[in-house]
Amino acid sequence: MFFFDMDGVLIDSNGIWKRVDREFLARRGLSYTHAYYEGVAHVPLPLAAKFTKEFCRLPDSCESIVAEWMELAQDSYARVSVKPGVRAYLKQCKSEGRRMAVVTSSVPEHCHMALGNLDLEKYFERVTFAQELGMDKRRPDVWLAAARAAGVRPEDCTVFDDSLAACQGARAARMRVVGVYDTFFAQNEAEMRSYCDVYIRSVEELLWAPERKKRT
Fold first, then answer.
1. pTM of this structure
2. 103: which of 29, 56, 167, 177 lies 20 to 30 Å off by Cα?
3. How far, CA to CA in Å, does 105 sit from each of 48, 102, 118, 200?
4. At residue 215, does pLDDT exceed 50?
5. How far is 109 from 96, CA to CA, in rounded Å?
6. Is the pLDDT at 83 greater than 70, yes or no?
7. Angle CA(154)–CA(156)–CA(160) in degrees, nearest 5?
8. In this predicted model, what pLDDT tens digit does every residue of 24-33 receive, in sequence order?
9. More confident: 65 or 212
């Protein structure tokens, strides 16, 4: 079973949340720092809001923080683009009979909008939303829940993700991990290369190297 992250792996959307975070913090006279980014990257919105409220010592409720983020993101996911090689690789996997699903920290509304507009939903059996589970992908629980929903053993799953923390969560769930480069997590590339079973700069590499494709 192949589990794909959405933001930064299937679609080029990580920049949306960087823009949203910068604007949200700027409205409060706060700076966007690496420590803040580490706390909210690839974390479901309710948990990210809780972190933001505590980290920034804000009087805002978590609900109002999420509402403001949604307003700032607006219809950005309707205009997002698919990442290079993704469409061809999904088609290739489908033709080989591979089972595929999405595991994402994204908001369900945004996920369905992006995958639907880009005509990618047809490749996936299901979508597991970390937000609906009340967890984040740094924990193995999310990945184990995705495996249970698909009726497969964790050991028989391969995860494609651009976040080191998410890859660590998947590995803790006894899954194989393929690290995927995205500029949003560029500073983690060296560690990702040493940690992941396979590391790629682009999904296009999986089309160019059949021997690597088979190993994943």
1. 0.85
2. 56
3. 10, 10, 19, 21
4. no
5. 30
6. yes
7. 80
8. 999 999 999 9
9. 65
Question: Residue 133 corresponds to which tokens in the numbers above?
Answer: 């589970």
Q: At 85, list the tokens.
A: 């090689």
pLDDT of 85? 96
Query: Exposed, middle or buried: residue 52 (CB in 10 Å: 0-12, 13-18, 19+)?
Result: buried
The CA distance from 121 to 137, in Å, is 21
End-to-end CA distance of the chain: 10
**Is residue 215 within 8 Å of residue 192, measured between CB atoms?**
no
Quick one: tokens of 179? 């690290």
Query: Beta partners for 200?
Result: 180
Distance CA 76, CA 152 (A): 34
DSSP 83: P
Cα gap 53→58, rounded to integer Å = 5
Measured between alpha carbons, how far is 46 from 201 in angstroms, rounded to an integer? 31
> Of 23, 41, 13, 21, which is closest to residue 111 (Cα–Cα)?
13
Examine the pLDDT at 216 and tell me if it is beyond 90: no
The backbone torsions φ and ψ at residue 191, rounded to the nearest 5 degrees and listed phi first, read -70, -35
Tell me the longest C-alpha to C-alpha distance in the chain.
54
Type of residue found at 154: P
In angstroms, the CA 6 to CA 129 distance is 11
